[in-house]
Design brief:
Blueprint lengths: L38 H5 L52 E2 L10 E4 L2 E5 L9 E6 L4 E12 L4 E8 L5 E8 L5 E9 L3 E8 L9 E11 L6 E12 L24 H7 L11 H11 L13 H9 L4 E2 L5 E2 L11 H16 L4 H17 L13 H13 L6 H14 L9 H4 L5 H17 L3 H18 L9 E2 L5 E3 L2 E2 L6 H12 L8 H17 L21
Helix pairs in contact: 4-6, 5-7, 7-10, 8-10, 10-11, 10-12
GO biological process, one term: glycosaminoglycan catabolic process
Protein name: DUF4627 domain-containing protein
InterPro entries: Chondroitin_ABC_lyase, Chondroitin_lyas, Galactose-bd-like_sf, Lyase_catalyt, Lyase_N
């Protein structure tokens, strides 16, 4: 707004960047011919005012959002210059593509394949680049100058796969001599959009370097490849501290930041599991158990009209090949628990009224759009002790099982398994033992069994059920020191100490052990004895002798940090 009128609505152009705890130079470029009435409008390119006034061009507001109380920010050596007046060597190299032109950018050159622009799928604007990739096909993008790559910049792009066929896409960053400086491996184990946001130090080669070209190579596992789409490309992007590494990066998990790959690291434990052919006994027991793991959606007819309007406002359309496109859903830095909670509830409510044709159309559009956007893979993970969200978010998606198509069921269960860390069931004991959590056992078991029992492929479902049995058994192992759950004296630990009051966690545990009793999925004898000892110990400590003079308690009941 004008300095003389602080009540006037803000408008201008906007950009964000992340601070560090060391001195760093920031070069922030604005297109001052474009302004908007809000950060939201600027971000989504809505309501753009094309003709900026002199007032618009002469005000700058720097807003610092601190993550600590009483944080101090130091600013020095601020200058403003028109890019046209800056020497070439001092300019930040801009290598960005949004594919909103009428022709494919000339820098993008395909060999053994074809490139085209399309409006069928997009993540920014209304178009993306379609790569009709065959086995061994390549796309190369040359830069106008050498790009210095380090921990201070990143490669960013959105990538779309039509089918999860487990092919591989190699992304190589090459120097002026065509030598590979960095190499990323993308596993095409996904359907829909994913976000590639990766600092240049998170590769096998972590050293700084100079890059002059990027090359994508498609390697088909079998068959002839498929269409791949790119959008919102920036090879010299600001490092995003809230980035989340999705499932497609599993082959490079060892090189990626722990802070941004929590769910990926867990996913990696079971990513390459190939299920065996189920035996007749396993199939029989599974079919019996499956009846007890069915899910039924809870409806709310009073909200149906509101939800139909809400889905309509997403502008979801069907393409000629049956895929969908629509308004962009939140990115990793935008996605919130409240959004997921509401979305999960919406899916469940619509599923409860699926017999209505209008509702069915809206439901299918919404679910396909969630899958298409890869939304749940933008999530950073649930906090085990956040009981409300841990219980509600996965439940809404799982309770809608009656309404999904087989294809939707596969993708939704895969996505829910991602956020509930299902592949902990495949983690080795040496990983799970120091990381035991009674909150996880208490809150997540209904979701884990909901995912396993409802998966359409019977062999996969039975393999998952066997893995969950190992999870129950591993959770019964005695954890070291003050770590969670069971100890050799029969006590249960939480918050670094013996905590009887928290051992309602046994309820879910014992409930699911009971469901499995008498089947080939039951827990082994040793695990049963450890859990039985824990339950008996809790009863002993909560019961006095007949004369009321004796009550037993464990030494570890002495305090929070014994």
């Amino acid at each position: 707004g004008k300095p003389s009128d602080p009540t006037q609505s803000w408008y201008g152009c906007w950009q964000s960047f992340t601070l560090t705890d060391t001195w760093k130079e920031y070069y922030v470029d604005f297109n001052l011919s474009k302004t908007a009435n809000s950060m939201y409008q600027w971000t989504f390119d809505q309501g753009i005012v094309k003709n900026a006034t002199d007032i618009d061009l002469t005000n700058l507001n720097i807003c610092f959002l601190g993550n600590k109380e009483n944080a101090t920010v130091y600013i020095d050596n601020v200058s403003f210059a028109k890019i046209a007046d800056i020497d070439d060597e001092d300019q930040k190299l801009i290598i960005q593509y949004d594919f909103e032109e009428t022709v494919v950018p000339t820098e993008w050159k395909a060999v053994g394949s074809e490139l085209s622009l399309t409006k069928e799928h997009f993540k920014k604007g209304v178009q993306s680049l379609c790569w009709d990739a065959a086995d061994k096909a390549t796309v190369e993008i040359g830069f106008s100058d050498n790009l210095t790559v380090s921990d201070q910049n990143a490669a960013f792009f959105n990538i779309y796969s039509m089918n999860a066929n487990n092919d591989t896409i190699y992304t190589e960053f090459l120097d002026a001599d065509d030598e590979v400086v960095k190499r990323a491996t993308i596993l095409v184990n996904f359907k829909g959009w994913r976000e590639f946001s990766r600092p240049y130090n998170e590769y096998e080669n972590k050293a700084n370097g100079k890059v002059k070209k990027v090359r994508f190579t498609y390697a088909a596992k079998e068959g002839d490849g498929q269409k791949i789409f790119f959008d919102n490309v920036d090879f010299n992007a600001v490092v995003d501290s809230k980035r989340q590494y999705p499932d497609m990066m599993v082959l490079d998990a060892a090189y990626l930041s722990e802070d941004n790959s929590r769910l990926l690291k867990v996913y990696a434990f079971g990513a390459d599991i190939i299920p065996e052919k189920a035996t007749d006994m396993e199939i029989s027991d599974f079919n019996t158990l499956k009846l007890g793991f069915g899910r039924t959606p809870t409806g709310n007819t009073g909200k149906i009209r509101e939800l139909l309007s809400k889905v309509s406002a997403m502008n979801i359309v069907r393409n000629s090949d049956g895929t969908v496109s629509g308004d962009v859903m939140p990115t990793p830095k935008e996605l919130t628990l409240d959004y997921l909670n509401e979305l999960s509830s919406d899916v469940e409510i619509l599923a409860a009224s699926i017999s209505n044709q209008q509702v069915k159309t809206a439901f299918n559009n919404l679910v396909d759009h969630i899958i298409d956007q890869g939304l749940l893979y933008n999530f950073s993970g649930l906090t085990y002790s956040d009981y409300t969200n841990v219980k509600a978010i996965p439940a809404g998606f799982l309770n809608a099982m009656n309404a999904y198509t087989e294809a939707q069921k596969v993708e939704i269960i895969k996505a829910v398994k991602w956020i509930v860390e299902f592949n902990l069931a495949y983690a080795p004991l040496e990983y799970t033992l120091p990381n035991q959590s009674s909150d996880y056992i208490y809150n997540f078991l209904p979701h884990l069994y909901g995912c396993a029992a409802n998966y359409p492929d019977q062999d996969v479902a039975i393999e998952n059920m066997k893995a969950l049995t190992r999870l129950l058994e591993n959770a019964s192992e005695y954890s070291p020191g003050s770590n969670d759950i069971l100890k050799p004296d029969g006590t249960g630990f939480h918050h670094n100490t013996h905590y009887n009051n928290y051992m309602y966690a046994y309820r879910s545990w014992v409930e699911y052990i009971g469901k499995l009793k008498g089947t080939c999925f039951r827990i082994n004898q040793d695990a049963y004895e450890r859990i039985k000892k824990a339950v008996v110990s809790m009863y002993i400590m909560s019961t006095k002798s007949e004369d009321g003079k004796i009550q037993l308690s464990a030494n570890s009941l002495a305090g929070r940090h014994p």
